[in-house]
Structure formats: C-alpha cells, structure tokens
C-alpha cells in the first residue's frame, strides 16, 4: 500500500473506533499492521478491501446518524442532556414523562446546532419519555455513580467480607436426588440458599458466585460457565426439582425411572460428571413436567403461566432454540449451534421456526418450564441470603461473551459481532495472546438500537442478585477483537461507548440496589481504574498482583497502600489458591501439561516461587502479622495470616474463595486448558452443613473477620 492508502486506512479505522496504536502490558508502543486492520474492519462489516472501498466506507461512517435512529439518549442527573433533533422540527417545547412516579414536566429546549437540542438537567434518575414536536425519545438518566457497598450496608466506610463459590462444587447431604438434602452430583440453587445461611452466620455479607448463565441443555459436554449459550437465562442443571414438587415426588420419579443407583454414583464422585448429571436430572424433570400442572396446586401453575407471559419473546426464542438444538442433535446432526442449521432455521422470526414451535409446542413449553424452575431457585437463594442477614447477598458473575452458536447470538444477531472473537493481546502471562471463541456486542449496533440488548442483559443478571461482577470489564472501554480463524496476535482494540455503558450500569445498579465490581486485570487502558472508581465501580485488587514495583519477587504492597476503590481478593478462579501457590501445585500442573514457554522449566519456576514465598512471609511480618513458620513448601501455608493481611486493606469488601477457606491446593480453572485439567468440575470434599465447622476453617474466617473489624 502507498503511504496515502495507509493514511486513508488509518482514518477509516479511527472513524470505526479501531485503534491503530496501543501500548502493551509492558508499556511498549504497538501498531496494528495494515493487513490486520483490513481484516478487522471487514469483520466489522466495513469494506476495506481496496483504496476505493476505504474511501466509500469512510464517507458512509462520517454521514452515519446512529444516535438519531435510536431515539435514545443517555445523561446524568442534574446535567443538561443533548438530544439529536433535526432543525426540521419547528417547536422546541417539550413534555417529559417520568417513568417511576408518573410525573410530567413541560419545558423548552434550546438548540445547540442544526442537529442537536439541549434539554435541561433533571434530578430523577430513570428511563423517562421525552415528547418534542412529533418526536418521542427515551432519556436514560443515570445517577452520578453506581450503588455501592456503603449503600447496601447502610454505613459509611464499610469493611465487609464475602465468600466466592463455584456453585457446581457444592455438596448437599444425601445419596440420591429426592433424598433429604441431596442434589444429584452437582451443586444447585437450594445448596446455594443453604450456604448463604451458613456463610451469613460466620459473618459474610455476600456470596460471589460463578456464572449461572444458560448453557446448551442438549449438549452437557460444554461446561465452561464463561462460554454460555445465553446471558439472558439460567443453567437449568442448577434446578432443585424438590423446591417446587417436594422430595417425595422427586424420589418417586427417580425410582420409576430406575435412576437411584445412577444418582447415588453421581453424588459420591469427586468431580461433576456433567453429562451424567444432565441425563438423570433432565429425565426426572421431564417426568415431573409430564404430570404438570396436575401435580402442583393452582397457584403454582398460575405462577408458571405468569412467568412465561412476562418472559415474552426473549423467553420464547430461548425455549425454541433449546428445542431446535435438541431436535437437531437427536436427528444425528453434530451441530455446534444455530450456524450449522438449515438456513430457514437460522432466523428466529422465520415461518419455519414458528411452524416448528407449533409442531413441537410441548418441547418448547418444557424448556420454558425449566427456566421458570431455575428462576424460582435463584430467587429463593437470594431471598435466603438477605433473610440470613447478608447486606449484599448474591454477587452474580456476568461473562464477557457468549458462544457464537448459542441462543443469545441467535436471538440478537443484529447486535453481535459474528466474525470477531473477544480476547486479549500477548502479555506476561499469555505470550501468544488469547482469543476466547465468543461473541461480543457490536458498538455501532448498541447505539443504533438504544442499547436494548445490553440493558436486557444487565437486568437478567441483576434480577436476583445484590451485586454483579463484570468479567473482563476492560472490554467496556475497548475490546481486543480477533477475526474468526486468525491467531490472537492478529487482533486489534475496538473502542466501545464507555461513558454511555457506564451510565447504564450505574442506572441499573440503583434500580436493582446492587453493587458493581469490574474485573480490571490484564492490559489496562490508561486512566481506566480512575474512571471506574469515579463511577462507583469497584475494581479487583488480587494479592498476587499487588506488588510494590514491577519485576520478579517484588514485595507485596502493605495493606494500607492497596487501592481503596476495589474489592480485595486472595485469588481468582483462574489463579492458584493460597495452598496451591505455596506448594507449587499450579506450577506442577503447567509442567505436566507442557504450558511453560521455551527455555523455561519446573525447577526454575519452583526456585522463583521459593523466593516469592519468602517475600510473602516478609510482607506479612512487615504488616505486623506473626508468621510462626518457615517458607518450606511442605510447611502449612499461611492461609489465616494471609486472610488477616487482605482483610486489613482499606477496600470496602474483601472476598476469599471457598477453596482458600478450606485450604484446597487445586484451582477451579487452569487457563489455556480444556479437557487436560478438570476445569469447572471439582466438588467440595464435605457437605455444606459441616463446611465451616473445621477448626482450621474457623480460625481462618475469624482472622478475616477480626481484621475487617479492627484495621
């Protein structure tokens, strides 16, 4: 390409929100090559195949008016808001209808330019309706910041703590589904409700749970909660059928189906057998559904009718997707999802899909029924948490994207980027970068549709929660997007309407009275942490990363020096537990699976870890925490002492995973692996009712509680 052509390509990329230049995790400037830029732009639906195409695409982008098309504008309380309004509208008189109290205000806008008017600021947050001339707009007016921990707890400068839990790993009492307390080989929403009571009694104000998004019910081999079918609905394998039908009815169904031995086997396993759980639980649920509504009271069946009516087209489309996917698999088609279906079925609004739904109405209803049961179960768990005294309760986890062949992508095709996968550029921990094989929302489509899909996703995730953790929150501002089939290094950062999205998050957080946490780990844009702090979104301060300076074996920051506008954590689901880090269990896994880079070795890594253990002990001692042990990997890991250290930070919320509480050396997930490491399968060794009774466990939680109260 000539220099002029490259200049035009860069101009097009800039207009499309694609960053030509960026800084990597080490602060080194990087520039995206012309070939990669063209591939990314083409995947965005912007023709960059030739100089003429670039000029035409640039002209189209510059003349676009997405904001006007949506009739949706976003502002902040007490600040004037700009609304796109062509000067062909003669009057500037307006009427504003408030969404919550039904109030009405009349006023007059002032014109900013030929395309924009300015509406005076208003004090009431919400989704208000603006009438001006013959135009109608929705004004989303956000609070100045998100709902915070102090708002949830009702006191300034709170110092609370919460447990993080992998829901599937919880173990209830009993040997088979239908027996008192049993869950059939996987944790469920009833187990979560029970744990909420146990954790609240120990002093926890919340439970940060693994994602419970809808998976592929007909294909239970897909188990990563961060690659769901839909973020609008729930994983039905977390349903406890006894919650609605009672334990005797569930036990009778299991016996009639001859599943008692299978259920007992599943319950005794150390790992979740997802296909086995799906086969048995869905068989029982189907038998109960076949007797529905005759096997429940009228008020219960009426509740399902209301749920389905209120779910509208979103629920109907998801249920149709599940029925279609199951049908295709049953017919012998090994399909990854809707992109492998016949063309007529790829459009959820097609006559063929409608005809299928009518012909298979019972199957579609069954999947809506499963969602109803799941919704009831999650609602009950949040209610149990609040009734037990938790100020926050459940903190839901919002995955960064969905499987491109899943229900969400099928029903919202116009709002997703089908040919680009979110990921991450190369960094210190992933030298080759990452492409997660998921979908992301289209920034231009979000603006064009008034953020419809994003708002409905937030509401679904917050429906039964007191908080939300946004996975890869860096993507709210910019997302590393990789064209389908390209290596992760051949991606580029695509900018998102950060201010608008943050305002919508703040608005929904107050409407649901839920705190907001953003995972801000990775290649962080300059100023990002300050921006989310001002917006009231907590970042994540993780022990292993809070160092006094860059470089190997740097000392850990003193607790008083940790950023206060964050959630303090010992670790995450992708990082080693304290016990695993201390013994080098994570390093042994990486060596076994060949995950070390060229020239690296287990011996070298273990020697480096030994130096890091010494730094941890020194950091604990410098914080006034007595560590009466040596740094030998065979010595007991200083879990209680580390809890005390993290608890002494100024963060309003400290979170420790159940694995650390129990002293488990194994992590839930090892990034870069699928079947070679038992990701998303490990179960707790003990049942919930005795989970926190162990003397060492009590000592650890006491250390955390005391440091939260006294620091």
Automatic annotation (TrEMBL):
<comment type="similarity">
    <text>Belongs to the disproportionating enzyme family.</text>
</comment>
<dbReference type="GO" id="GO:0004134">
    <property type="term" value="F:4-alpha-glucanotransferase activity"/>
</dbReference>
<dbReference type="Pfam" id="PF02446">
    <property type="entry name" value="Glyco_hydro_77"/>
</dbReference>
<keyword id="KW-0119">Carbohydrate metabolism</keyword>
<keyword id="KW-0328">Glycosyltransferase</keyword>
<keyword id="KW-0808">Transferase</keyword>
<dbReference type="InterPro" id="IPR017853">
    <property type="entry name" value="GH"/>
</dbReference>
<dbReference type="GO" id="GO:0005975">
    <property type="term" value="P:carbohydrate metabolic process"/>
</dbReference>
<dbReference type="InterPro" id="IPR003385">
    <property type="entry name" value="Glyco_hydro_77"/>
</dbReference>
<protein>
    <recommendedName>
        <fullName>4-alpha-glucanotransferase</fullName>
        <ecNumber>2.4.1.25</ecNumber>
    </recommendedName>
</protein>
